């Protein structure tokens, strides 16, 4: 039983977990969320630009979008974070005096997220029936207005589940910022767990970090399923009064 | 009577090719102000393409388009299309917007009407097609016939000078066709200039003022309905009519 006790103590030392919890909640959680949410929002903006370029009638724009996407989807996150963070870090320090690695980490995460989100948006936009653009143009809307008012809103709605998945990836990838060097208050969930694990020689703080990630990601996973389901079955709309009347056999009034 | 500020429409020697596929080979079509021209012909004859060329959804390779006698080829195509309403086979209502928003969208964004006034005008249009009570429903909750009537209201809301109908009843269940055709006939009687691409020979014969028979990207025969349907001159039209009637 000694071996089992040892194992339990290694992974589930409740005291060690409780010891990192205040830091996790005070610093880890907000820092992780700052990284994931800012790069998620910026990634959506840049991703939309890429998607619109990718569905453009202008060949050069489609190519630009294609090349960007291929590059940033094809390179591991860790490489991009290191190249951006370490490469641009000194420049930022000289020009602004700031040593905060957050902006560059968010920038790097945004660049990668945008490549994926751009593809998600593009597939959504392209899934909208051609008749929608045609009907909008026939009313007299320009191509840009038609995309903005008619095509993109429908396309985005269809890819919301994929978009949430991308956000889950961002939450997890945000841990890579530790490579850029963080002071105590800048540490996010992983780094806090990892530091404590290194100091105590016990893995339980890292397991606590895993739990923190799961608290963030599992509800999102279920949110994906919920959205997916609702998109498939359509929202349960209230019946119009005369529909109900028709169903029970009373004459529907016009 | 003339409820509409409609105008005449003329296509002159219209040509269009997609690559090596010569879809329109010199089409002439003239629709007098306030009259209805129906365009009939086998599938793939270029009828629907002709409509899209005449409102410049597709730019012609050659030829001219005149609205009220004036060439519109140099106009801003978006502004031209605000003057020509179009109704599609698949309705193409905007599914993410309510019925009344479908109708008021162009009024708000293109005519720049304030939201309330746009809604009021949209409701008025919906009333004309008998669907005011569906204003706040989603298109998906309407029958095909109702959706098509909303699509007609959406096009009419912009007070177009000409209306195009691209096989507007082809996707409808048989029992829903009548209501839409009746609405189209009302518009025709009300003095709207209309170009109607249709497979409904009854409508073509009874409602339209002129009938144009297209095949292989050319106008094979055109004239008043009596002549086209009772005394077809060409073998191709005779063959087509014996196939569809």
UniProtKB/TrEMBL annotation, chain B:
Name assigned to this protein: Amino acid ABC transporter ATP-binding protein
Major location category of this protein: membrane
Family: Belongs to the ABC transporter superfamily.
Entry keyword Ubl conjugation: no
Family annotation (SUPFAM superfamilies): P-loop containing nucleoside triphosphate hydrolases
Ranges of residues in domain ABC transporter: 9-241
Membrane topology: Peripheral membrane protein
Keywords: Amino-acid transport, ATP-binding, Cell membrane, Membrane, Nucleotide-binding, Transport
UniProt GO MF annotations: ATP binding
Localization: Cell membrane
Keyword hit for tRNA-binding: no
Organism field: Arthrobacter humicola
């Amino acid at each position: 039983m000694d071996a089992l006790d040892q194992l339990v103590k290694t992974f589930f030392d409740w005291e060690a977990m409780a010891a990192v919890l205040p830091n996790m909640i005070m610093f880890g959680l907000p820092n992780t969320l700052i990284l994931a949410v800012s790069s998620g929002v910026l990634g959506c903006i840049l991703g939309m630009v890429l998607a619109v370029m990718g569905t453009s009638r202008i060949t050069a724009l489609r190519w630009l979008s294609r090349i960007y996407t291929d590059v940033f989807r094809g390179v591991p996150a860790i490489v991009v974070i290191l190249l951006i963070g370490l490469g641009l870090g000194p420049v930022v320090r000289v020009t602004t005096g700031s040593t905060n690695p957050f902006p560059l980490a968010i920038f790097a995460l945004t660049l990668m997220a945008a490549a994926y989100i751009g593809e998600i948006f593009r597939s959504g936009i392209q899934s909208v029936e051609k008749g929608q653009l045609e009907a909008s143009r026939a009313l007299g809307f320009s191509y840009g207005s038609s995309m903005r008012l008619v095509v993109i809103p429908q396309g985005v709605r269809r890819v919301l589940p994929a978009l949430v998945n991308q956000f889950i990836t961002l939450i997890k990838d945000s841990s890579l910022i530790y490579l850029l060097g963080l002071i105590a208050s800048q540490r996010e969930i992983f780094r806090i767990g990892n530091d404590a694990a290194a100091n105590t020689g016990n893995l339980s703080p890292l397991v606590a970090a895993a739990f923190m990630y799961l608290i963030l990601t599992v509800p999102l996973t279920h949110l994906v399923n919920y959205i997916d389901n609702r998109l498939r079955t359509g929202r349960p709309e209230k019946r119009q009064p005369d529909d109900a009347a028709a169903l029970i056999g009373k004459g529907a009034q016009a | 009577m003339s409820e509409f500020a409609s105008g005449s429409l003329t296509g002159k020697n219209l040509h269009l090719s997609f690559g090596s596929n010569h879809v329109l080979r010199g089409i002439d079509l003239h629709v007098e102000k306030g009259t209805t021209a129906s365009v009939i012909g086998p599938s793939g004859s270029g009828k629907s393409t002709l409509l899209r060329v005449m409102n410049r959804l597709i730019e012609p390779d050659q030829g001219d388009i005149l609205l009220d006698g004036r060439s519109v080829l140099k106009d801003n195509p978006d502004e031209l299309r605000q003057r020509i309403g179009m109704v599609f086979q698949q309705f193409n209502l905007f599914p993410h917007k309510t019925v009344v928003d479908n109708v008021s969208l162009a009024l708000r964004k293109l005519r720049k009407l304030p939201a309330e006034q746009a809604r009021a005008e949209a409701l008025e249009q919906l009333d004309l097609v008998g669907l005011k009570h569906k204003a706040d429903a989603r298109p998906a909750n309407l029958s095909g016939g109702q959706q098509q009537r909303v699509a007609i209201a959406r096009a009419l809301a912009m007070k177009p000078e000409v209306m195009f109908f691209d096989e507007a009843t082809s996707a409808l269940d048989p029992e829903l066709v009548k209501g839409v055709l009746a609405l189209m006939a009302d518009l025709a009687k009300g003095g709207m200039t209309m170009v109607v691409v249709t497979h409904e020979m009854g409508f073509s014969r009874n409602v339209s003022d002129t009938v144009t028979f297209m095949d292989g990207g050319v106008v094979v025969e055109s004239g008043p309905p009596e002549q086209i349907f009772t005394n077809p001159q060409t073998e191709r039209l005779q063959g087509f009519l014996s196939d569809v009637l």
